[in-house]
Design a protein that fits this description.
heterodimer, A: alpha+beta, Arc Repressor Mutant, subunit A, 9-stranded mixed sheet, 3-stranded antiparallel sheet, 15 helices, 38% helix, B: alpha/beta, Amidase signature (AS) enzymes, two-stranded antiparallel sheet, 18 helices, 13% strand, globular
Chain lengths: 491, 526
């Protein structure tokens, strides 16, 4: 691990502090059915409408592994460039809670399905690696509802038994920014793989964040675990607050107690939930209802061969195939739909121009309309044709923006819009020359000025463009003006 | 014993043959069983629930099938059975002998019982058992104590029917059903069978689905039948066993035709006699029984091989770590939240404590405590992990032994049935010692059979245990048949229990000629 970058250190009264972060991310497996029962794993639904006899832990009911969930975990492991363990074991984690019908959660403790892996995270100025410690499969719990009745609590078991992947990172993260970038990248990978929808509002992705602080070079400090943080922004806020809190405690002469804390989104603060002493003894032991999970090499290989292109590979390909910068490529591949859209636009066209249009007007339009790329009001075919018109000098960049706005509002193909509205660029030099001559004649003062200040040529360009309604070819206008006003080409 | 008997006193296979020969009807057979229950259950307390209407309805449908061609008759068509209350039965109260399940009526059927109904069997009711199958005398049931139909010569003292399947063993021994389902975690089929002069087989772990069986210790629990003959055990097991996708530990391995296997020649089989089972304090009587078994096999042309199972001594202590550990977790679901008993409390923790304090009996609580302790941080390695290692060693002992023998012969229990309440104030370990010869079999996941080997000096039945290779129930049953042929089937004791109860009104009991045991013995010698 490289030294922590200066900008990531936190200033305290006694000098700079380093913050050390590790995350346990719970990602809901995308699957039709739950991990050990045939009940639907769909989000929502009337309370207790997606509950099987197994989920409700009726007497004599037994878990049976859903192979699709195993495949999803292995796909994820492959996406994290991780060791796939051909033999893993399901354990029982025992504790009492009304939303945990069995009185234990089936999880993987000693022998997880996926071992060590790595995630490369890119920030604007640098990249860093986060080690993956492990990934294991486990059951989600149900939900207690305390606001339905003044005297009783209710339990909704729809989520009970839904498959989760717990993805545990090594403590390789050094700031809230890095933490946010890590979970964003992880989410991108999961979405590329189609193994988790990454929807944090619905709780299908949430994180337990372990935070400690230390002076650089000192041994690791005592960590606090912030439970169940459910948005990227909150993860950042929780780390910022918690690191500062710990620094203040230590600098005031106190010590950090190992404990579990909760993040309160309203106040932006973390507060103590339970101390290490109050921690449960989960009495883990192998679940005797399930045999050890064994997967063959062929099973893993089959999944590997049909694995989709992953974000890092796609970015590298975009950089080499389309000559994009690392940053541009990174933005375009940040989700699979954007990358696919970009490729549809860029194929056979100027890739840089396509990238600029997507990252500029196109993304701005999506933002403005609040739409996702999958429901974009402008198709790849439309944007592609517009770029064709620019490349073949049928319209200028300025007119193209106009056409884009029309497409956004009223629809239609760019070619037809240009045709109907007479927006075709004027490339006839005779017509342009006429306008140029008129403008030179009408502005003797500016003609005199341009001789000493060649940069003011731009003013003439603007005048000509305005007079032609923007349709004049800007290169032709430039060339003509330089020739007539005898302003030499800039070198 | 009189030379005429009620239909309910036939063996299952005899009844099957008579049903197919249209000598009797399923309705007559079912009515005979219901009459016997009515006459005897007050004294024996074998049944917790009697489903007379359902039984007669099923019997009627069986009679319709039996009236057609014999092809329409399924394997157990019209045979009335008792079901241990551990098996969940759709719409019929299932308690596992515990107060905590209250009036729980499962909306589903266990795979084992479903297999039996699919084979045409008739359900008489639910049989008493030790609470959650924890016990060796059926005295830990919340719903009263079942009594053994056997009594010592000249005594009126009530004896225990063994446990945990004491309702099953008592009902089968007294003729209150043609056969019963049971379950065996450490000996709960074989020990009650030995105490009541019946046959009990615990098949290889994975043979019978555990789906719908209230769990005690998942890695040890296995269903099996208690019957009045070896052939009945073969027929019952054939119907109960199946590979079931709903139980991940069930095994996809076809069961051979067990009834046919009984007729295959026995000569040349190698019988192992393990020296470690000659435990200190074993009674002369049990030792003599064992010798008698050995002699029967020698005479039948078997080869007797002295073997060693060196880790036998560690089996019982290891069992009492593994079984409670799993139980402590399996029983966590009885929390008062979703079904069964709920005792309200100030808050959720209080509700848990009230419900579980009132809902579980002392023996169950003891095992939950032991199990929780051995799984706790800091103790896991010393207890649970070590016990699992012992388990591997026991398994290996048997693997080695089965290199040179086909079946292992031991006594089933160290003593005959004891008096009801006689161990009330004893150290619980004394009760646990009942399982000393049987737990090894569960720890190794092997098939084990108890077959009556004779009577004690007091006139009480004693059992011999046969242990087989994994999935080789056929050989175990075939070996059991040799003992049964030599010793004869145990009779149904004189019905002292029916004396007090009022005779059922109406229907005249149909009598048939009794099978003559001595004649059978003679046949074998031909």
């Amino acid at each position: 691990m490289a030294d922590t970058r200066k900008e990531n250190l936190i200033d305290g009264a006694t000098g700079p502090w380093e913050v050390i972060v590790g995350m346990e991310v719970h990602a809901q497996v995308l699957s039709n059915a739950k991990l050990f029962s045939g009940a639907s794993a769909a989000f929502g639904g009337e309370p207790n409408s997606h509950v099987s006899l197994v989920d409700a832990a009726m007497p004599g009911m037994l878990p049976v592994i859903n192979v699709e969930c195993v495949k999803q975990a292995i796909r994820t492991g492959l996406g994290l460039k991780a060791q796939i363990n051909r033999r893993s074991v399901f354990d029982r984690k025992n504790y009492f809670y009304p939303d945990l019908p069995q009185g234990y959660q089936i999880s993987q403790f000693k022998f997880p399905i996926v071992g060590e892996g790595i995630v490369t995270v890119d920030l604007k100025d640098y990249s860093f690696d986060v080690g993956i410690e492990r990934l294991h499969l486990e059951q989600d719990a149900g939900k207690s509802l305390h606001d339905q009745d003044p005297d009783h609590s209710y339990v909704d078991l729809n989520r009970s038994g839904v498959a989760l992947m717990e993805i545990v990172s090594k403590p390789d993260i050094r700031s809230s920014e890095e933490a946010k970038a890590y979970i964003t990248k992880l989410r991108t990978i999961l979405r590329y793989l189609g193994t988790c929808d990454g929807n944090m509002e619905e709780g299908s992705l949430r994180a337990d964040v372990n935070v400690s602080v230390r002076k650089q070079g000192a041994p690791l400090g005592t960590r606090c675990e912030i439970k169940n943080v459910n948005s990227i922004r909150f993860i950042g806020q929780a780390i910022e607050y918690e690191a500062r809190r710990q620094i203040d405690v230590i600098e005031d002469g106190g010590t950090i107690k190992q404990e579990t804390r909760l993040f309160d989104a309203k106040s932006g603060k973390t507060r103590s939930m339970r101390s290490k002493e109050e921690a449960h003894d989960y009495r883990y032991f192998p679940d005797p209802d399930l045999l050890p999970l064994e997967v063959s090499e062929a099973f893993v290989e089959d999944l590997k061969t049909v694995l989709p292109e992953l974000p890092d590979e796609k970015r590298a390909r975009f950089m080499s195939d389309y000559a994009l910068s690392a940053y541009d490529a990174g933005v375009l591949i940040s989700d699979r739909a954007s990358a696919d859209f970009y490729e549809a636009v860029a194929r056979g066209r100027d890739p840089k121009l396509a990238a600029n249009w997507m990252m500029g007007d196109f993304f701005a339009a999506l933002n403005k309309t609040g739409k996702d790329i999958t429901e974009s009001p402008i198709s790849a075919a439309q944007l592609g044709e517009l770029i064709d018109l620019i490349s073949s000098d049928v319209v200028s960049g300025r007119i193209a923006k106009e056409v884009f706005e029309i497409m956004l509002e009223k629809g239609g193909m760019p070619g037809e819009i240009v045709e109907e509205r007479g927006l075709k660029q004027v490339t006839d030099t005779g017509a342009i020359e006429k306008v140029v001559d008129e403008i030179i004649a009408a502005n003797p003062k500016q003609v005199e000025q341009v001789q000493t200040k060649p940069k003011t040529l731009g003013w003439f360009v603007g005048q000509v463009m305005r007079a032609t309604g923007g349709k004049a070819n800007p290169d032709a206008v430039n060339a003509l003006l330089r020739q007539k006003l005898q302003v030499p080409e800039e070198v | 014993m009189s030379n005429t008997m009620s239909l309910n006193e036939l063996t299952l296979s005899e009844a099957r043959d008579k049903l197919r020969a249209k000598e009797i009807t399923a309705t007559e057979l079912t009515e005979a069983c219901l009459s016997a229950i009515e006459a005897g259950n007050d004294a024996l307390k074998a049944y917790l629930v009697v489903t007379a209407d359902k039984a007669l309805e099923q019997a009627k449908r069986s009679d319709e099938r039996l009236a057609k061609t014999s092809k329409d008759a399924r394997a157990l068509e019209g045979i009335p059975l008792g079901i241990k209350d551990l098996f969940c039965t759709d719409g019929i109260r299932t308690t596992a002998g515990s107060h905590i399940l209250g009036n729980f009526e499962p909306p589903y059927e266990s795979t084992v019982t479903q297999n039996l109904w699919d084979a045409g069997a008739v359900m008489l009711g639910k049989l008493n058992m030790d609470e959650f199958a924890m016990g060796s005398s059926t005295e830990t049931s919340y719903y009263g104590q079942t009594v053994n139909p056997w009594r010592a010569k000249g005594s009126t003292e009530n004896l225990v029917p063994g446990g945990s399947s004491g309702g099953s063993s008592s009902a089968v021994a007294a003729g209150l059903c043609m056969a019963a389902t049971a379950s065996d975690t450490g000996g709960s089929i074989r020990q009650p069978a030995a105490f009541t002069g019946t046959v009990g087989i615990k098949p290889t772990y994975g043979r019978c689905s555990r789906y719908g069986m209230v769990a005690f210790a998942s890695s040890l629990d296995q269903a099996g039948p208690i019957t009045r003959s070896i052939k009945d055990a073969a027929l019952m097991l054939q119907a109960m066993a199946s590979y079931d996708l709903k139980d991940s530990t069930s095994v996809d391995r076809p069961l051979p035709d067990l009834e046919k296997a009984l007729t295959q020649k026995f000569k040349g089989l190698r019988i192992g006699v393990p020296k470690e089972y000659r435990v200190d304090g074993m009674s002369k009587e049990i030792e003599a029984l064992w010798e008698k078994g050995i002699d029967i096999y020698r005479q039948a042309g078997a080869e007797i091989v002295d073997i060693s199972l060196p880790h036998t001594h560690a089996a019982l202590p290891a069992y009492y770590i593994v079984a409670p550990a799993e139980a402590s977790s399996n029983l966590a679901r009885y929390d008062g939240v979703r079904y069964g008993l709920r005792e309200n409390g100030r808050d959720i923790v209080d509700m848990y404590e009230e419900t579980r304090s009132h809902g579980f009996g002392a023996e169950v609580k003891r095992r939950i405590l032991i199990g929780t302790y051995v799984l706790s941080a800091g103790y896991y390695d010393a207890y649970y992990l070590k016990a699992q290692k012992v388990r591997s060693l026991i398994k290996r002992d048997f693997d080695d032994a089965f290199e040179t023998v086909d079946v292992v012969l031991t006594p089933t229990t160290p003593t005959p049935a004891f008096g009801l309440g006689s161990k009330k104030d004893a150290d619980p370990v004394e009760m646990y010692l009942n399982d000393i010869f049987t737990v090894t079999v569960n720890m190794a996941g092997l098939p084990g059979l108890s077959v009556p080997g004779g009577l004690s000096a007091e006139g009480l039945p004693l059992g011999l245990q046969l242990i087989g290779k994994p999935f080789d129930e056929a050989t175990v049953l075939r070996a059991g048949q040799v003992i049964e042929d030599a010793v004869g089937r145990m009779p149904i004791p004189d019905a002292w229990w029916a004396g007090a109860a009022s005779k059922p009104a109406g229907k005249a009991k149909k009598k048939v000629e009794a099978a003559d045991a001595p004649e059978k013995k003679a046949k074998r010698k031909k």
